């Protein structure tokens, strides 16, 4: 798979707490240069990026990130503000405590509420696979499908582990036909990127795409 094709699947990401405006601009400039699917940035930078880059960039952001246990009302408000500020894609984190309590319906209801707030914009649901059993992963496939989200996403990149091929294959087997997969966290080589795409991932979340595809050492998300 050529580099242009690989870049077209990448959500070019910078979500570190220390991210500066200079670094965010570099991320955006790289996204334009290489043709990535989006930039995935902290909510506090959405409006500034939109004002500087306009419609030339597809802006993705995160909600309830990275732990997921903020209340639904807070996540809905975050989503509404993100869309108002100029984001067109939202990556939300589920409440993992609800998973562990077996409150799968509550998770489905939360995803529905956030999808409503997102309107016609893309919603990706981060389930943080490193903390879940196989049964819980399957239940999350069901919840994401029933709630009408656009993507299921493996990881925040801030957990104990990122995307694995085993998890991607589980998700592919159990999600609905209208749900796509995003692999994130720990993608460190071009081979990793290609393998995940070939396995059925539509998006790859990484801060390392440019380093990977230019032959540099890949570090980060």
Describe the structure.
This protein is α/β, with parallel strands linked by helices and about 220 residues long. It has a single domain, classed as Aldolase class I (TIM Barrel, Alpha-Beta Barrel), CATH 3.20.20. The chain is built from ten helices and eight strands. Strands 1-2-3-4-5-6-7-8 form an eight-stranded parallel β-barrel, surrounded by six helices. Helix 4 (about 70-85) links the parallel strand 3 and strand 4 (about 90-95). Helix 4 (about 70-85) runs parallel beside helix 6 and helix 7 (about 135-145) crosses helix 8. The longest helix has 15 residues, at about 105-120. It is globular, with a radius of gyration of 16 Å. About 45% of the residues are buried. The model has no long low-confidence stretch (mean pLDDT about 95).
Summarize the structure.
This protein is of the alpha/beta class and 221 residues long.
Under the CATH scheme, the architecture is Alpha-Beta Barrel
Residue share in helix: 40-55%
In the CATH hierarchy, what is the class? Alpha Beta
Number of DSSP E strands: 8
Helix count from the secondary structure assignment: 10
* Tally of domains: 1
End-to-end C-alpha gap: 22 Å
């Amino acid at each position: 798979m050529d580099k242009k094709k690989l870049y077209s699947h990448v959500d070019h990401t910078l979500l570190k707490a220390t991210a500066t405006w200079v670094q965010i601009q570099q991320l955006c400039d790289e996204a334009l240069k290489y043709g990535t699917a989006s930039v995935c940035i902290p909510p506090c930078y959405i409006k500034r990026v939109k004002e500087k880059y306009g419609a030339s960039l597809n802006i993705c952001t995160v909600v309830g990130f990275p732990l997921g246990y903020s209340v639904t009302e807070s996540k809905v408000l975050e989503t509404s503000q993100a869309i108002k500020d100029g984001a067109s894609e939202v990556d939300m984190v589920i409440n993992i405590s609800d998973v562990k309590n077996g409150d799968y319906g509550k998770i489905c209801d939360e995803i529905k509420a956030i999808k409503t707030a997102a309107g016609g914009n893309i919603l990706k649901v981060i389930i943080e696979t490193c903390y879940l059993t196989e049964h819980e992963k399957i239940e999350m496939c069901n919840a994401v499908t029933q709630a009408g989200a656009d993507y299921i996403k493996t990881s925040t990149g801030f957990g104990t582990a990122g995307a694995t091929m085993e998890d991607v294959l589980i998700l592919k087997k159990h999600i609905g036909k209208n749900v796509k997969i995003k692999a994130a966290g720990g993608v460190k080589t071009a081979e990793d990127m290609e393998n995940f795409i070939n396995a059925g991932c539509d998006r790859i979340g990484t801060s390392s795409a440019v380093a990977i595809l230019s032959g540099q050492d890949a570090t980060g998300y």
